[in-house]
Amino acid sequence: MFWTLPTIMTWTRIVAIPLIVGVFYLPIAEPMRNLLATVMFVVFAATDWLDGFLARRLNQTSAFGAFLDPVADKFLVCASLLVLVHLNRADVFVALIIIGREIAISALREWMAQIGAGKSVAVHMIGKVKTVVQMVAIPFLLYDGVLFDRIATGLWGQWLIWLSAVLTVWSMVYYLQKAIPEIRARAK
């Protein structure tokens, strides 16, 4: 199951990272770099939904795919946040909240799986909402322009990335609350 179509699509999100970062070093006008990076992010982020759909539809789900999918998502989001901080389009505090949460919850899930309590920290709706808000905020901030002569994507992106940070903390608290009984039981 290492080279199925869904897994290859997941790998493309990881391969996309240097491509998206590299766009900002091309000798082209900033609006074109912004547009190119935005389109690339949206296309590669869409593979997150598509690879899961195809894995289920083609009966190609695997433990490796289940491991790689969230890793690819986190790499793509974290790398994009670092680019946005570098471009002064996202606050470093927001990036620290989001990246710190991803590391903490990934470690928590790994530990909970090792002790046989992984289901207690399974993905919840608040985590999914957080991801959707991030996946809208990031391309808005990458584009950093005006869409349809009405939508200031930089401004909307700022609001959404801060909302994402709030949802990030909320989801982290939720997962920690679910894990606390197991943590207390193991601490004795």
Automatic annotation (TrEMBL):
Bilayer topology: Multi-pass membrane protein
EC category name: transferase
Domain of life: Bacteria
EC number: 2.7.8.5
Main location: membrane
Transmembrane segments: 6-28, 35-54, 74-100, 121-143, 155-176
UniProt keyword list: Lipid biosynthesis, Lipid metabolism, Membrane, Phospholipid biosynthesis, Phospholipid metabolism, Transferase, Transmembrane, Transmembrane helix
Stated family: Belongs to the CDP-alcohol phosphatidyltransferase class-I family.
Alphabetical list of NCBIfam families matching this protein: pgsA
Protein known as: CDP-diacylglycerol--glycerol-3-phosphate 3-phosphatidyltransferase
Organism: Variovorax ginsengisoli
